[in-house]
Amino acid sequence: MVRSNKGRDAIVTGSLRWLLRILLYAWGVTIVFPLFWTLATSLKSSKQFMLGDIWSWPRVMYLSNYYKAWTEADMGTYMFNTIFVVVLTVVLFTIMCTTTSYILGKYEFKFIKFFENYYFLAMMIPGMLLLVPLYFQLDGVGNWLQTLVQTVLQNQDIQFKITDSLVVLSIIYAVQALPTPIFLLTGFIKGVDKSFLEAARIDGAGEFYVFFRIVIPFVKPIVLFEALTRFMGTWNEYMTALTFLETESHYTLSVGIQRLIAKFSYQSDYGAVFAGLIISLLPIMILYILFQKTIQNGTDMSEGLK
Amino acid sequence: MKQKMSRIGRPSSGQWGFMLLFGLPPFLLFTFVTVVPMISSAYQSFFDYSGYGDMTWVGLDNYRRILTDPIFGGAVVNDVIILFFKVIIVLVLAVTFAVSLTRLNFGHSETNVLRFVYYIPNILSSVVIAKVWKYFFDLELFSLVTGLTTPENGWVSTYPLPIIIFVASWCGIGAYMVILIAAINNISKELYEAAEMDGAGQFRQLFSITLPAILPQVRYIAISMLTSIIGSNMNFVKLFLGESMHGSGFTVMGVYEYDYAFSRYELGYANAAAVILMAIVIALSYVFNYVITRKEKS
To answer: pLDDT at position B243, please?
Structure first.
């Protein structure tokens, strides 16, 4: 009885295996195909595209689309702004996240529990709902600061808008991202054996030494993962940048690309549109290819604690 | 030695220094950019306020107006429909893919390539994703592939709901699948061996071992989709259907709130909408938790 059951089972499993394999590849195609299509279109002359030949591989490689996107649509400025924001955000974020997690994880004083719960509860706030009130709050503070500076310096010509600043945007990105990574990292730091810390302290090591030389090496992979996640999240962020940045020369890629698209699709120059899209996703693709293992394993790790 | 004893004792001067230097600034900044706006948002929801100038107390008027506004009702319905289908599609596909890639003994390189590809949508920006898919539908490519006739106003404007559901699910599956794969790989191999000895087939193993073991992850995925739904829908609606909700008549809760604040200068009203959204999200996560916990028990 058992054997015959097994035989039938093997046939069912075998055909199911092929069915699932087809499904897996079909899903893979829905991901790869749009990307290849984007790449192909970015290399195609707009003429070939407009003649209805929208899906074949380009007959002639039109690298001039890339040149056009880069020079005529300020891609250089957007790229520079994005890199500036991303680097500043990742640096600020990594410092704040690691130090706070160290304090929450290894300082076992009574009042620390309050701060741990504070960050933990804040994890529940949907960030998108803060966008509107945060903008008006910062704008109010900015106006107040402007009046203050104008009165102190007796000069009405000094005008600025703090919401329209890449530094302010980076600080917001770094700070708003804190709760979940802090929660995760605190868990890992709690697991670091206390005797290492005590031994160093008895040898006269300062707090910063203990933090940087003893605790950080233990949690390096997870810190790297969080920094990478922040890198990609910041590179891709759209709504906050759209709301805060007003001057065109301050635009990041995700906002600037909209302008590029509006400009070139108005001229029906889809080659340049897609070249712009490829330029904006290329750095993130390279990062993903370089750090694929860290990113995917980190996704597992961060799940482990929940 | 003293330090070793003082688990709940007093911080040393070095520890005070570290806390003041590194702990305090992030705490103050964090309070300033998340907690203060949240409280001021709740406070302003009782006022008629444009964001600048005078505030007039109107009590619960904003709330009354929102709850009787059919556009808001429509937005809530759209969000809930997207959430519902997205959760089902993402969970079914992510579980299917994760089980296939772990339990069916595909080749090592095959698995790695698929894992690499599936994760790609998670790293791309929503701007690029939305634009590529928008062009895919609107530049006749979709009609070419399927042989269907393009509707008069284009696919995206005519069928925003199914398209947003599809693209939002498309983006989500990779990372969730990776989480599920890790969970399945953590299940003890002995359990499967014992089941095999007892004559349990693949299906029996799937329903008696694999699925119960990954239920906590499934719950986590569902909840994380729920808490991110407002932002995610807002992103896609803005990117697919353009700036204003009046353009196509299709809107979601996030866009509704945003437009009232920035296009109509009714900040008090927008804040009241935000408070209601918050309440809806919290209520839904309770329902989710309740349903899944009951399933876990049975």
So the answer is: 55
Chain A partners of B30 at a C-beta cutoff of 8 Å? 119, 122, 175-176, 178
Mean pLDDT of A101-116: 90
Which of A13, A15, A24, A35 has the most B C-beta neighbours within 10 Å, making it the best mutation to test the interface with B?
A: A24
Pair of tokens at residue B278: 């918050």
Same domain, B109 and B213: yes
At B234, list the tokens.
């807002």
Rounded to whole angstroms, the Cα distance separating B227 from B34 reads: 16
Q: How far is CA A41 from the centre of its chain?
A: 26
- Give the pLDDT of residue B298: 62
> Cβ contacts of residue A227 below 8 Å, gap of 6+?
A90, A93, A94
Confirm whether A30 is domain-assigned: no
Tens of pLDDT, residues A164-220:
999 999 999 999 999 989 998 998 899 888 888 888 888 888 888 989 998 999 999
**What is the number of CB-based contacts under 8 A between chain A and chain B?**
247
Q: Is the pLDDT of residue B254 over 80?
A: yes
Selected residue of B1, B34, B129, B169 to mutate for chain A interface (largest A Cβ count, 10 A): B34
Establish if A25 belongs to a structural domain.
no
- How would DSSP label each residue in B48-81? E--SSS--EE-TTHHHHHHHT-HHHHHHHHHHHH
Residues B204 and B260 in one domain: yes
Q: Which chain B residues are within 8 Å of A204, Cβ to Cβ?
A: none
Q: Are residues B97 and B9 in the same domain?
A: no
Hey, are the CB atoms on B33 and A176 less than 8 Å from each other? yes
Structurally, chain A folds into a number of domains equal to 1
pLDDT 10s digits, B255-283: 899 989 988 889 999 999 999 998 888 88
If asked whether residues B169 and B242 sit together in one domain, one would say yes
Residues 102-141 of B with CB under 8 A from A: 104, 106, 114-121, 123-128, 131-133, 135-136, 139-141
Tell me if residue B57 falls in helix, strand or coil: strand
Residue B210's domain spans which residues?
A: 63-297
Indicate the number of domains in chain B. Answer: 2
The residue range of the domain holding A118 is 43-304
Residue B173, CB-side half-sphere exposure with 13 Å CA sphere: 27
* CB contact B27 to A (< 8 Å): yes
CATH code of residue B102: 1.10.3720.10
Statement to judge: residues B79 and B24 lie in one domain: no
Closest-approach residue (CA) in chain A for B138: A54
DSSP H helices in A43-74: 46-50, 64-72
Residue A145 maps to which CATH number? 1.10.3720.10
Residue B49 lies in a domain: no
